[in-house]
Amino acid sequence: KIANLTMFDLLPFNQQAQAETREFLQKIVDILLDYIELCNDRHEHVLEYHSPQKLKELFNMAIPHDGVTLQHLITDCASVLKYGVKTGSPHFMNQLSCGLDIIAMAGEWLTATANCNMFTYEVSPIFIIMEHQVLKRMRQIIGFHHGDSIMAPGGTISNLYAVIVARYKAYPEYKVKGPSALPGELVIFTNDQGHYSMKMAAMVCGFGTSNCVYIPSDKVGRIIPAELERLILEQKAKGKYPIMVNATAGTTVLGAFDPINEIADICAKYGIWLHVDAAWGGGLLLSKTHRHKLHGVERANSVTWNPHKLMGTTLQCSTFHVRQNGLLEECNRMTAEYLFMTDKFYDTRYDTGDHVIQCGRHNDIFKLWLQWRARGESGFEARVDRLMELAQYQVKKIKEMPDKFYLLMEPEFVNVCFWYIPERFRHMPHSLEKEEELARLCPIIKERMMKAGTLMVGYQRDGKVPNFFRSIISQDAITEKDIDFMLNEFDRLGRD
Ligand code: ABU
Question: Which residues are recorded as modified (N6-(pyridoxal phosphate)lysine) (predicted)?
């Protein structure tokens, strides 16, 4: 009935079009529901791969002069999902953020419908209070008794906040006077296995990327504390000013956890801000069994923790927490009087706009709150424990097939790093030369994988070791059978 109508026949243009509007949206919801079922169907492919050129040919994305019909839009929506990657498939083990949590997704639907900007209590009263409550609970879980938090568009921006606040704490006059308030060049330190967001922050903050100093890591990817201290002294001797050390809880590739307590001792000795990038590993704080990996996190000055990773919240959901009360606002307050008037009739401390470097802010809290309500704390703990158990299952299976797979190291987390060994290399004892050969095969196997569309697992290198595969177990849909499937698929795709 609605096929030949256009958007101008629906609400709000046509105030009599309640039934037509409902019918259009119901059709879109049906497409989404079909898609959710496909994501959970193990016979379905993870993706239907096409080259960029072919995709342009298959899908006409041109913006028309006059708008298309509702039927056209419905077809567009179905096609977009057809050509997308099903990150909710149990055979998608490619990224730290994956899975399709039905409750969080429902939360995002509601958020899109409510369409409230998170900059003021005036516009988002219920969501702002929710954000306060949930972030306070996260600070308690970290072990911060005071403090302040904010949600940011991704872990890189959360980590950028850490550098901005650390700089403000050390040199508050920088906010007004800029570089003239500084005694010299500022430096920050991070694990040589850490996320590139620290280097990005050094660039964005004007320190220069060479002032993001990499601390050598040990063979499992953890910062060597003695090396950190040596580098701090070296930088000081060069006349530079160390302002922040970033410890990583769950490195992106290897899933390593830096020794936070030992790093905190060094930071305390030299009066340096300690940030913990727990974007990936923060979810382990919810598990009594595994939270010890972040031992000492309560001593950090700030923490990044992304629920859209280990907690499976739909993208995006990143949180940044500061231990000291008021600092975030002092640092970022611009007192834009058109929006954050201090003479409003309500308690304007609930206007979050002066805590952040954005103005408008997406509502990332509702989906997290709804998901946490649905699972309870015990549900999240069970999820995290199960993911860790599944990663160990994968390790066990890999060890049972030493001719076909080589484990890079015993994983600390749900990142399992390995090589597939095709038949022609099976007679060779493991060596650096063999690693180079196996590394060369990674892009070839990945290409076959993408074109087959049956599985997605990423490969990378870590600076010391050439290409290897890294599978990520971070979604509720995965079972032991899917891990068996993954390893069998490697054997099928990796054959000479
Ligand atoms: N922001 C780090 C995510 C990288 C990954 O999913 O592999």
Answer: 309
278 lines ligand 1 (CB under 6 A): no
Residue 285 lies in a domain: yes
Residues 51 and 177 occupy one common structural domain: no
Q: Say yes or no: CB of residue 371 within 6 Å of ligand 1.
A: no
Q: At what angle do helices 480-493 and 432-452 cross, to 10 degrees?
A: 100
Residues 6+ apart with CB under 8 A from 289: 385, 388
Decide: 392 in ligand 1 pocket, CB within 6 A: no
Task: Please tell me whether residues 33 and 178 are part of one structural domain.
Answer: no
How many structural domains is the chain composed of? 2
Which residue minimizes the CA distance to atom 7 of ligand 1? Answer: 95
Residue where a domain stops, chosen among 32, 52, 86: 86
**Residue 257, Cβ density class (10 Å: 0-12 exposed, 13-18 middle, ≥19 buried):** buried
Q: Are residues 176 and 247 in the same domain?
A: yes
Nearest CA to ligand 1 atom 2: 252
Q: Which domain, by its residues, includes 290?
A: 109-371
Which ipTM did the prediction report? 0.93
- Tell me whether residue 103 is in a domain: no
Amino acid identity of 371?
Answer: Q
Q: Both 77 and 129 in a single domain?
A: no
Specify the CATH number for the domain of residue 263: 3.40.640.10
Q: Which of 94, 95, 308 to mutate to test the pocket of ligand 1 (most atoms within 8 A of CB)?
A: 95
Question: Which atom of ligand 1 is nearest the CA belonging to 306?
Answer: 1
For ligand 1, whether the C-beta of 252 sits within 6 Å is yes
The tens digit of pLDDT for each residue in 398-448 reads: 999 999 999 999 999 999 999 999 999 999 999 999 999 999 999 999 999
How large is the angle between the packed helices 225-237 and 260-270, nearest 10 degrees? 20
438-476: pLDDT as tens digits:
999 999 999 999 999 999 999 999 888 999 999 999 999
- CA dist list (Å): 209 to 142, 184, 232, 408: 30, 15, 16, 30
Tell whether ligand 1 has an atom less than 6 A from the beta carbon of residue 95. yes
Q: Last residue of a domain, which of 19, 53, 86?
A: 86
Q: Are residues 134 and 68 in the same domain?
A: no
For residue 16, how far is its CA from the centre of ligand 1 (angstroms)? 47
Is 456's C-beta closer than 6 angstroms to any atom of ligand 1? no
Top mutation candidate among 85, 92, 97 for ligand 1, by most atoms within 8 Å of CB: 97
347 CB burial (10 A radius; 0-12, 13-18, 19+):
exposed
- Whether 350 shows a pLDDT value over 90: the answer reads no
Q: Give the count of beta carbons closer than 10 Å to the beta carbon of residue 106.
A: 16
| pLDDT tens figures, 175-200 | 999 999 999 999 999 999 999 999 99
208 falls within a domain: yes
Same domain, 224 and 343: yes
